[in-house]
Design brief:
It contains nine helices and eleven strands. It is α+β, with helices and mostly antiparallel strands. Among the domains are: about 70 residues, Signal transduction histidine kinase, dimerisation/phosphotransfer (DHp) domain (Helix Hairpins, Orthogonal Bundle), CATH 1.10.287; about 140 residues, 2-Layer Sandwich (Heat Shock Protein 90). The strands form three sheets. The protein has a five-stranded mixed β-sheet with strand order 6-8-9-11-10, covered by helices on one side.
Length: about 425
Amino acid sequence: MRNSLFLKIYVTLLGALAIVAVASAAFVRFGDDEMDRGWAARQQAFVAALLPAGDDPGDLDLVLSRLGRALDADITVYDAAGRKIAGVGRPVPLDAGDRRRHRPHAMDAFATRLPDGRVVAARLGRPPWPTDRRRNPLAYLVFIAAITGAAAYPVVRHLTRRLESLRGAMRLWGEGALAHRATVEGRDEVAAVAATFNQAAEHIERMIESNRALLANASHELRSPLARLRMAIDLYGTAAGDAARTEIVRNLSELDRLVEEILLASRLDHASGLERSEIVDLLALAAEEAARNQAKVSGDPASVRGDPQLLMRLVRNLLQNAGRHGAPPVVVEVRRSGGSVELSVRDHGPGIAQGEGERVFEPFYRPSGRGEAAGGWGLGLSLVRQIAAHHGATVHHEHPEGGGARFVVRFPPP
């Protein structure tokens, strides 16, 4: 508990309250002392102004009688030698002033020496203003601090409990419970941190699951060409021939292509931007790739900004996908649409089943009803979407009239 955030916050709050209480008490005490000194400085002049000059007992008794009734006080006047001259009420000793020095805040008795040597000693039945000097202001401040601390306890505890819950969620997630999420309560900064953590955890979980699926599917896809390659090598060892050599080369090419796609997909996953960016003639690039894949090209010259190698790979993957899963003729079209540029690749094969137009962009997706021997879609279209995203473009599938499948990539203005 020594490092508990709750204790740190709560002790800091109580410490601040204690400092305020002590400072306030010192201020009150200093103010009282200043008031006492101010009263002591004026007391002599005040009493001298009230009492008549001279030693006429009649005048002195009259004034003392009025003061005694007005202040509910006992008053005794002594001469310079300490002899009683006059008084009202019970006699007040001459050393009343000395007694008050031992009780500096006592206001019930005092003695004042006048300029002519006389001493006026008085004992007040009640103070001239409503106050109780016997009460300690520090006690009031301590009481207020205690009430404030008690009221702050549930608030601080609620705040730190949510922080502890968030810390526990992060600890569990860090230990491998990737599906665990923090509880979001309220709308303050703690809730915002918890929501941000949940979003980051969900994003990382998807990335990890995607990588796991990619590795699992890649290992599955690699087994087929490796098995065929081993068989071809065994056959080549017993009966060398062109057919066995061709099979070996074909399987090696397939392995090389698959490994290259996996590496490119991994690089695009971790890349934050394009390594190269320049203006590319999309129609010319599409025409070059179409010539290698026996496809038709049409459209208008249009330029986009991007990496030429990645854009070439995007067009090549779309054409290879059309040739592998579709049927000729394969048509490539480049056109302008508003301020954007569209690249479309269409084949005339069986097309893609309804509801699977988005799933074909998943790595190694295998459509429903497709056998093991026919294989899946590999990484071709998944790479197309990754490359398009790195260029600020979008890609989607369409069902054109007349059958087949069309994939459309829409680029932003260069």
